[in-house]
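Please fill in the sequence for the structure shown.

STRUCTURE ENCODING:
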């Protein structure tokens, strides 16, 4: 009888401590997410799209496979006479900035380092950073009309168009250690840190992002 009572006591104690643990309402810390998809224009001419708020941790997809996917950031490569020319496009543009994805390079004069070290050390979205956010200007390149005599993207028009974008083609050829970190405000108004990790010669492209919680935003 004593053994039975002791067993019930032990089980009750376990359930008590487990229920106390379940009562812990603290939110888990945000995760750093890395995902890879391909931007080779021969196989994936639509490039890739990243929706920061899809699911629990965001979602990166091949846009040729999910044409209706609503992205915050697109990475795409256009084939020119001099080879592929990749770049990064934010959703929307300055004609309707309030509804567009916005970004700023916080490694350029805003106190954040580059590479993985800079990404990990970027712990607070300051007021100055948020005030510096901006949408892309209109992307003045038409992949159907702006082509050369061989039907490939006109490199001069494309290069000029990339320069009107916040990120454009500035990061696509950098080593990870030299990659700047961006603060991004998505279409829903949430803030993220964002970085391109790598782009392989075959087109495999890895992106890194993490959401800022309210306590880390001025």
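FILLED IN BY: designer on duty
SEQUENCE:
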């Amino acid at each position: 009888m004593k053994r039975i009572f002791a067993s019930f006591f032990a089980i009750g104690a376990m359930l008590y401590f487990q229920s106390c643990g379940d009562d812990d309402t603290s939110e888990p810390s945000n995760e750093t997410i890395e995902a890879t998809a391909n931007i080779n224009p021969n196989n994936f001419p639509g490039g890739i799209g990243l929706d920061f708020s899809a699911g629990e941790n965001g979602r990166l997809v091949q846009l040729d496979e999910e044409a209706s996917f609503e992205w915050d950031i697109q990475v795409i490569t256009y084939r020119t006479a001099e080879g592929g020319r990749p770049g990064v496009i934010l959703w929307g543009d300055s004609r309707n900035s309030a509804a567009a994805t916005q970004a700023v390079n916080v490694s350029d004069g805003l106190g954040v380092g580059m590479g993985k070290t800079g990404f990990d050390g970027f712990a607070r979205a300051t007021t100055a950073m948020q005030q510096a956010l901006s949408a892309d200007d209109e992307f003045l390149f038409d992949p159907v009309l702006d082509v050369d005599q061989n039907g490939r993207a006109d490199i001069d028009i494309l290069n000029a168009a990339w320069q009107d974008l916040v990120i454009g083609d500035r990061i696509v050829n950098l080593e990870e250690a030299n990659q700047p970190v961006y603060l991004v405000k998505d279409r829903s108004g949430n803030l993220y840190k964002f970085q391109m990790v790598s782009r392989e010669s075959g087109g495999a492209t890895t992106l890194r992002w993490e959401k800022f919680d309210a306590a880390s935003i001025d």
